[in-house]
Amino acid sequence: MTYKPPSFKSLNGVHQKLSFVLLAVLCLLSFGFVSAQAGNMKVYKHVDAQGIIHYSSKKPRGKSYHILNIRCPECSEWRNSVDWKNTPLITDLYQTEIEHAAKHHGVEKALLQAVIHAESAYKAAAVSSAGAQGLMQLMPLTQKTYAVNNPFDAKQNILGGAAYLRHLKNNYKNMDIYLAAYNSGETAVERYGRQIPPFPETREYVRRVKILYGRYKQNQQRLNAINNNRVMATGASAGSAP
Description:
Blueprint: H1 14-31, E1 40-47, E2 53-56, E3 66-71, H2 76-81, H3 95-105, H4 109-120, H5 140-145, H6 154-172, H7 175-184, H8 186-191, H9 200-240
Antiparallel strand pairs: 1-2, 1-3
Helix pairs in contact: 3-6, 4-9, 6-7, 7-9
């Protein structure tokens, strides 16, 4: 069945227009319109003679328009196109918040980094078509459980996600299983005998996070070794001073 993509109209006023930009993006996410360039959605924007703004996934005919390229971490085309063993790690964003949450909830920093990378590509404003929000893509019920009042606040989101991961780790022990539960929910994991559910998305998610986890952990070990060598060198220099 061929689906004809909708055209979105704005209301008068700046705030209404901005809200419809977000609505258009979210709707296109849910319908899965992805451009040939994996990981980006191409959205066409044009203004008609009445001054009404329209958004569509198809190029308007005979009309002036602007193209909005929106990165889509949720889209399978993006995820499947990434070489997770070699894609650059992201180590310059939200490190203070990650370290705080890791210590507070007793979760490895590398695990939080991997989950954030896999879930949102470190996009704090990310929203999935299923309603998951923020860096660690927390669902509304999870937000409520862990007192996350603003899922787009990095500190709150990461603390909530770390608390949820701690709960799942305590409950399932095995990394494959608790990562599967983070992705597909505890109900699905229980339904399949506390094993990874047979969902391609969930199996790919577990694989992806484990690859990233290993790489972030190795990177942290490398940084620790460098720091230790610096401390030893500084101590040796101080000890040899007259």
